[in-house]
Amino acid sequence: ALTVLSSWWYLLQVETGDLGDVYKIRVSCDEVPGFEGWHLKSFHLEELQTKQNLNFDCKCWLSLNREDKELVKEFPAVIEDQKTLPVYKYVVSVHIGDRWGAETFANVYITLYGKRGDTGVRKLHTSLTKGRKFQRNKV
Q1: What confidence tens digit (pLDDT) does each residue in 78-129 have?
Q2: Which of 18, 52, 77, 133 is the most exposed place for a label (fewest CB within 10 A)?
Q3: Both 74 and 99 in a single domain?
Q4: Is residue 12 in a domain?
Q5: Residue 100 sits in which domain range?
Q6: Is 26 found in the same domain as 66?
């Protein structure tokens, strides 16, 4: 069981199996109409059997309107006497075909996998190019 302390005022207990070494957490919030965002200061985990504490410095917004416009973020564990793992940002280029019907108005999601896990399902909601996303013969 883990006790989760978040942003000073939330205290939750979560029952899990053995997670092994926790080196990061992924925090997300739902996209609700009218939702302006959530500022997350920090996250703290305590393993109830061993009393091991893990701290995660967040200091960011989960919002589609602020900072980097994300509702899902990952945070590395801050462990004394250990180097904190870096968090990388990626630019994903989606090349749409030139055939009839190649474009879409649907929500498009991606998951990246690596040696230390995965990103979880991420919605591709922000484009770095002008115009509508996922148009025929566009990037």
Answers
A1: 888 888 888 888 999 999 999 999 999 999 999 999 988 888 899 998 888 8
A2: 18
A3: no
A4: no
A5: 90-138
A6: yes
Count of residues in the chain: 139
Distance CA 76, CA 69 (A): 19
pTM, two decimals, is 0.73
Q: Report the C-alpha gap between 5 and 94 in whole angstroms.
A: 38
d(CA 58, CA 26): 11
Question: Exposed (0-12), middle (13-18) or buried (19+): which is 9, by Cβ within 10 Å?
Answer: exposed
Count the domains in the chain. Answer: 2
Token pair 């630019």 is at which residue? 91
Q: Which residues have CB under 8 Å from 60's CB, separation 6+?
A: 39, 40, 67, 73
| CA–CA gap between residue 50 and residue 89 (Å, rounded) | 34
